Amino acid sequence: MTRYVDLRSDTVTQPTQQMRDAMSTAVVGDDGYGEDPTVVALEARFAALMGKEAALFLPSGVMANQIAVRVLTRPGDVIVAGKSQHIVSFEMGASARNSSVQFALVDDSAGSLALSDVLEIIDAEADHQPHVAMVSVENTHMPSGGTPWELNDLRALAGAIGERPMHLDGARLFNASIATGVSLKDYADTATTVMACLSKGLCAPVGSLLAGSDELMHQARIERKRLGGAMRQAGFLAAAGLVALETMVDRLSEDHHRARQLAELFADAFPEADYDASTCRTNIVSFNHPQARQIVEELSKLGVDGGTVAPRRVRFVTHAGVSDDDVDYVSDVLEKFRPALR
Ligand SMILES: *Cc1c(COP(=O)(O)O)cnc(C)c1O
Q: 131 lies in a domain?
C-alpha cells in the first residue's frame, strides 16, 4: 500500500486532542471589549516568553507582519529586508498595498543579512535617498532552508542600526530557539517587535502573536481593527494556542531530527544539486535543482508531497504529522524511483 507523506508545509498540522479538549471548555468573552480571558492569558503568556510588555493575538502571521509595518513606518519609507523573506516575497505585495512602503533588498541566500549590506542602504539617507524606517529579519529564515540566526549576528545587526526599529518575523522562532539553544527572550530582545506563528509546527489550528512595547501594541490593536482582524470569542482559538505553547515546543527537535534525515536522503538522491545536508538545522529541507518542479510532481505521484518556493528550488517540511515510518517511506521512494526522476 502506498503511503501519503505530506511535506508541503508545517501549516498542514492538525490540533492535538488536548487542544480540542481545551477549545471545547474554553472560557470566552468579547475580545473587542477586552473581555476574553483566554485571549488575555495567551497574550500575557506570549509577552512574558518574549520578554516584551505586551502582545496581540492575530488571525495570521501575515497580519502580524503587516501590523508591524503599519506601526513602524510611514508612507514612502523604506524597509530593509532580505530579498526572499516572507514579508517581501510571500505576502502578495501587502506592505506596499497596506502601508505604501518600499523595500530595499539585500542578499539573504544564506539566511542572514550582511551588516555591511544593511548599513550601506541606511547610509544612503545622507545622499538624498528615502528614509529607512526599519529593518526586517526572519528567524528561522524559511527560503534558505529554515536557517536559524546566530544570536551574535542578530545582536550585531540590532546594535549597528541603533535606534532604528527592527521587526523579527519569527513565524518559526520556536524552531530557531530549539535548534540553537538561544532563548526566545534573547532573540526577541534584539527586536522592537517580534511575531510568531502558533499554526505551524506548534499545531494550533489558527493564530499568530505580535509582541512589543505597551505603546506599540496599543497602536497595533488599532491597526488590527483597521485590517478587520479584531475577533470576538477568539478564546476558543487562544485556548489551543496556550496548549501549543505548553506542550508542542520541546517536541520540535523531533521534526528537526527527521528533517536532517530527509536532507541526507535527498542529498544522496540528487548529488548534482550539491546540497549540503548539514545546513538543514530545523524542519525545512530546501535546495536548488534545475528540475525542481518535475521532481516535486514525480514525488507527489509516489505519495511524497513537497513544493517549490522559487524557480528551481524545492522545499520539504517536517512537522508533527511526519513519523519515522514516513521518513523510511521517503527513503524507499527515493531509492526505488530515483531513475524515474532524472
Ligand atoms: C508562514 C509564515 C508567515 C505567515 O504566516 P501565516 O499564518 O501563514 O499568515 C510569515 N513569515 C514566515 C517566515 C512564514 O513562514
A: yes
Q: Which DSSP state fits 279?
A: G
**Are 5 and 304 spatial neighbours (Cβ–Cβ below 8 Å)?**
yes
Considering 221, 247, 273, which residue would you say is the last residue of a domain?
247
Question: Which residue, among 268, 330, 336, has the nearest Cα to 304 in the 3D structure?
Answer: 330
Kindly provide the b/e burial profile for residues 137-171, where b requires at least 16 CB atoms within 10 angstroms of the residue's own CB.
bbbbbbbbbbbbbebebbeebbeebeebbbbbbbb
Residue 210 lies in a domain: yes
- Indicate which residue's Cα is closest to atom 8 of ligand 1: 61
Parent domain of 47 = 17-247
Q: pLDDT tens digits for 80-118?
A: 999 999 999 999 999 999 999 999 999 999 999 999 999
Of all protein residues, the one whose alpha carbon is nearest to atom 4 of ligand 1 is 61
Residues 45 and 136 in one domain: yes
Residues 168-182: pLDDT tens digits?
Answer: 999 999 999 999 999
138 lines ligand 1 (CB under 6 A): yes
